[in-house]
Amino acid sequence: MKKRDVPAAAVDCDNFLLANLPDDEYQQLRPHLELFPTPQKTVIYEKDKEIKYVHFPVSGAHSVLAYMKSGAAVEVGTIGKEGLSTVDVLTGATMATETTICQIGGYSLRLALDKFNEIRAKAPELERLSYRFFKAYLCQVSQSVACNRLHSTVERFARWMLISHDRVDGDTFELTQEFLADMLGVHRPSVSVIAKEFQDRGLITYHRGVISILDREGLEKTSCECYDVVKSQFQRAIGKAVG
Question: Using CA atoms, how far apart are residues 78 and 211, in angstroms rounded to an integer?
Fold first, then answer.
């Protein structure tokens, strides 16, 4: 796609998928996009409930959580400004498969599901980019399964710090111990122990739910291989490297 084929509004859009659309397709979407605030803990989708909107995050991060009957949860995927929430809609679904919660506060551009489907049917590049993002997202989910089984909690903590850092502007963001425990599939006391270790090593600061990344290179060295595997998939899919 040549740069002249993309409108300035799309280039300036902080959502990578939308920013890569050609002019005619972006202009079809643009009148229907609503800037929507997503504070931390906002429930974007609830499992087995109707999907009313498609969200294109422009800041923050959405956490896709699998809940057990006990109420315990573990994160199975993270979606930020590289794509769209929820990928369920790309299969024709109108009900959410899992619960999606805003783990890092921000904003989304959202539009009604029926309007998204109507435009997607006549917008081949939107269709293509959406499915390329879907493929990269599925890689993230499958890699997370392997990561949770094979890699240490310390490695996985570093990976999730990098994933969160990729999806925010700047080096500081809010992330509660509750979310960190869900992301790692561990109890909250374990999060405190690991966070203290990372602080002692000068990798991060963590105080009252606010994390600052101090040593990105150190986190990359501490993280397992899964971060780079997923990052390369998103690079190929949308031209942006996010883990």
Answer: 18
pLDDT in tens, 100-119: 999 899 999 999 999 999 99
Instruction: Answer whether 141's CB lies under 8 Å from 77's CB.
Output: yes
Asked whether residue 23 is domain-assigned, the answer is yes
C-alpha span between 148 and 163 (Å, rounded): 15
64: which strand partners?
A: 77, 100
Residue range of the domain that includes 12 = 3-145
Whether the model pTM is above 0.90: no
- pLDDT band at residue 12, thresholds of 50, 70 and 90? low
Beta strands at 204-207 and 210-213: parallel, antiparallel or unpaired = antiparallel
E strand spans, the chain: 34-38, 43-45, 53-57, 61-67, 73-79, 99-104, 106-112, 172-174, 204-207, 210-213
